[in-house]
From TrEMBL:
This is Cytoplasmic protein. It comes from the Bacteria. It holds the Pfam family DUF1963.
Length: 260
């Protein structure tokens, strides 16, 4: 799939114009199991932390753990996203990976932190994270190994199940067969930045109070590399309002994951 050219099954070809209008760029993430430098984009491992910076904790004093870190100097440019700086995603390594089911926007058992200027002199960075200690019994992260992130720019149409899907196609009525064809051929899963999210269950933004989280900040999907998996082959998503993203304001983020 490149630019606005997509392959469609014959049953959906009559909707090509409509489908192509929904195409968005996104950054595909591929993982490679390896150790990384402090400022590199990664899954797990130790975070970028300058001497004097406070390590993120939950309100109960528990240290959160690095889920993912993105250095936007390494990422293909897409609209509204940072051009530089590091974005970090921390979660509490409990049995629900830090998800607060009552308030998935409360940054307590998870945090999203943006660092606009990156220092690449390791003498100014914390290298000893032994203070974190080993995880308590029955506490764990959704991966087994640290992984370096590699990126490529791709394109995708709106997937079936996205909370805007029915509104986008409100003037057409897909048959059951066409629904199945759409899901099978046009739902682009995988780890990604931007574009559209996919789910194993439902889009939480179907709830009106969560509609404003219109932009996919990060999606982490099942990957054999690094043994990345949320629950039973689940998918984790972080969402933000596009205007907040443009302002580099990450104080309001929606975190969700679901599985089979």
């Amino acid at each position: 799939m490149k630019n606005s050219i997509i392959e469609l099954p014959e049953s959906l070809e009559k909707y090509r114009d409509k489908i192509e209008k929904t195409i968005k760029p996104y950054v595909k993430i591929k993982l490679k199991e390896q150790e990384t430098k402090p400022w590199e984009s990664k899954l797990g491992g130790n975070p970028y932390l300058e001497i004097g910076m406070e390590y993120p904790k939950a309100s109960n004093g528990e240290c959160l753990r690095l889920l993912a870190q993105i250095n936007f100097e390494e990422v293909p440019k897409i609209k509204s996203f940072p051009q530089k700086g590091i974005l970090q995603f921390f979660i509490l390594p409990d049995d629900v990976y830090g998800l607060n089911f009552d308030d998935p926007c409360m940054q307590d058992t998870f945090k999203v932190i943006y660092i606009p200027d990156v220092e690449k002199n390791e003498e100014n960075l914390i290298k000893d994270f032994s203070f974190l200690g080993d995880l308590e019994e029955d506490w764990y992260m959704p991966f087994s190994s640290e992984g370096k992130m590699n990126f490529s720019l791709e394109y995708m149409p709106i997937p079936w199940g996205e909370y805007r899907f029915n509104n986008v196609y409100k003037d057409i009525s897909l048959t059951d067969e066409e629904d199945d064809e759409y899901m099978e051929n046009l739902n682009i899963d995988g780890c990604k930045i931007g574009g559209y999210a996919t789910f194993t269950q439902d889009d939480p933004r179907d709830e009106e109070e969560l509609n404003s989280f219109d932009t996919l900040l990060l999606q982490l999907d099942y990957e054999k590399e690094c043994d990345l998996m949320f629950g039973d082959a689940g998918i984790a998503n972080f969402f933000i309002n596009e205007e907040d993203l443009k302002k580099l304001d990450f104080s309001k983020v929606l975190y969700n994951w679901d599985c089979c």
